[in-house]
Design goal:
This protein is α+β, with helices and mostly antiparallel strands. Helices cover 58% and strands 16% of the residues. The protein has a two-stranded antiparallel sheet. The protein is globular and about 50 Å long.
Length: 220
Amino acid sequence: MTISKKRIAFIILTIIFIFTPSLAKSEEPSLAYSFLKFSAGIITGALIHEGAHALVAGATDTQMSWKIGTYNQPIGFTEEAKSKDKGMAVYSAGLLSQIIGAELILQADKIDKNDSFIRGLMAWNVLNAVFYTLDYWVFKITNKGNGNNYQGDLKGLEHYSNESLAQGFAISIAAIATYQGYRFLKTQTWAPDWLKSNSYNLSFAPLPYGGFIFSYQIRF
């Protein structure tokens, strides 16, 4: 089954329109309703991820073919990139959209971080990024490569660049997503006081000569 780019974009916009949470406060939702909103957040995150691939493919004039139930995941694509740069752009777009989306949520004060939809969206943005990199390094279920045959975002990136660049990209994505997950947990009403406290703080910063550094600060 092949899915057109227009249909994917329509599905994404429809789900966002239906499930985007209101900024106004309302009565405490039921557990079932919260679960549905959480699930909708995950689905929206997944569709935005795939939509980012389609958007970049359209911008770079890259032919794509979408199929359901392939490459050991619900939806996957094949492409015919006309250059290495275009191939790299297409394959990196999905994970980059998650990092950018998560950061926008964290930076926007008006977004209710405890809304079930936002929790689901952030769960996707953080956990999918981390598990995707683990799959690339360890499990190799989605990310596989053998000569000119490859599948998965990181293996696709490796195919159009090299292993060192793909490894660096994977490490950066995993580190940033982990840090974003930590920051998001600090906003949750159910988070323990020691996590919310500013006495303990995890920070992340790029280095001027390349790479990045994690630091853990304890105030006393």
